[in-house]
Design a protein that fits this description.
2 helices, alpha+beta, Alpha-Beta Plaits
Length: 101
């Protein structure tokens, strides 16, 4: 045991379900991730969901997952947020957080 390393880096993929497209969720996700020091990407999927990948400090990624799971942008009706391929990282694979098309 001991003090958790606040610099622990994690990576994960996410998909947000519900009424989430057309409500600035991709833009707000990018802006919040950039401010939190999280790198990766986000985009609208053809299935009507928002998908993406985040890499960054575990504490900040956890806060973003909470926001994507329950709050989101104004007007969003989030049903759920699924996470995949979660693991620890030694270094980030991305320089910034981008919106993909």
């Amino acid at each position: 045991m001991g003090i958790p390393d606040i610099r622990q880096l994690v990576t994960l993929e996410f998909e947000v379900f519900g009424h989430v497209q057309g409500l600035n969720l991709t833009k707000d996700t990018r802006d919040r991730c950039t401010k939190a020091g999280i790198t990766g990407w986000v985009k609208n999927s053809k299935r009507g969901t928002i998908v993406g990948k985040m890499q960054g400090p575990k504490t900040e990624v956890d806060k973003m997952i909470t926001w994507l799971s329950s709050e989101g942008s104004p007007g969003c009706q989030i049903e759920r947020c699924e996470l995949r391929n979660q693991s620890n990282l030694n270094r980030l694979d991305y320089k910034d957080f981008a919106i993909r098309f």
